[in-house]
């Protein structure tokens, strides 16, 4: 098959790495890709949000299957556009991607179908939002309704912080039109868990558990980010908990979406809070997680491509995947200053030494090659240094040994990825 992967981050590098290994793949493209993806696929200079450009390329190149990585092209209707052109794709339609594209839509769906989540209210004007917050217990969570690249959430500890978040999102539009509407919800205490399921419109197939680290600093301090590292499996995700999540959250969502005329196909990524009252839904993403996909792909023993095809074809009811019993862990190396302003174009050295390390794989996110062949940092999150081990502790030791071999003075990482699993 001729395959196109859409996106250019660490998630897409992991997907390309897995898909390139499939005997079903005869030619692999990635748009736009990055310096690491270029070692697995032919990179094409088309932006992930360029729906028409991607559709035109797919038709011209006789692409058999498109795998959409990021959320933006899904919300923009890339899968719908490809279907109209007769091209099969992995991912939800625009109508189904509203689960991620509108936090308000997701919360309303949960309320209507009894899916456990935090209490909330929706607002389109700053005045009523501020009045609501003023009468609400603190801390409170302020969320931009639309897509904000993982950054549109503020956990406000004080009333002043909540008011500033409302002004910033709704008044200053720091997230553009994503902040035209807000969801304000109760703060839920507990441990976070990332839970993934492949969905084919009716059947949901649970994938392995993973745990992300959202805050920029050690000890879960500092601002929220797109994710500073992840590991799999998450010891907290027992078989009993998985069955509860599937029964009370994932399957009811799949059934509700089908009943609403928005059948969901693709990967449903539930960000969960494990509260004293049981698991509750924080948010849905309608695509693979980044960085969770990196350790998940390291642990996958089955061919990924048939699973993605089965999702698109509505054939997951007869499907199973095999996973490594080993643990995997990813440490994100980010540009100094991320998630705020950061410098682009700094040089990264030392990856050759890492390439020879056993059970280690470096997935590229924000990288590009200079004309003279030097590897340059181009984004906020730049590398996903990943490793396998008999347990999380061994995987972490290998990953940090690789991190320490990389020469990039302008980069930083958290030094405590996997701390919860190791503490257990």
Task: Describe the structure in your own words.
By secondary structure, this protein is an alpha+beta fold. It has four domains: 2-93, Rossmann fold; 119-186, 2-Layer Sandwich (Dna Ligase, domain 1); 191-318, D-amino Acid Aminotransferase, Chain A, domain 1 (2-Layer Sandwich), CATH 3.30.470; 327-423, Phosphoribosylglycinamide synthetase, C-terminal domain (Glycinamide Ribonucleotide Synthetase, Chain A, domain 4, Alpha-Beta Complex), CATH 3.90.600.10. Helix content is 32%, strand content 28%. The protein has 14 helices and 24 strands. Strands 12, 15, 18, 20, 23 and 24 form a six-stranded antiparallel β-sheet that branches. Strand 7 and strand 8 form a beta hairpin. Helix 1 packs parallel to helix 10 (293-299) and helix 7 (126-134) runs antiparallel to helix 8 (159-171). The model has no long low-confidence stretch (mean pLDDT 95).
Key phrases:
4 domains, about 425 residues, six-stranded antiparallel beta sheet, D-amino Acid Aminotransferase, Chain A, domain 1, about 30% helix, single chain, globular, Rossmann fold, five-stranded parallel beta sheet, Dna Ligase, domain 1, alpha+beta
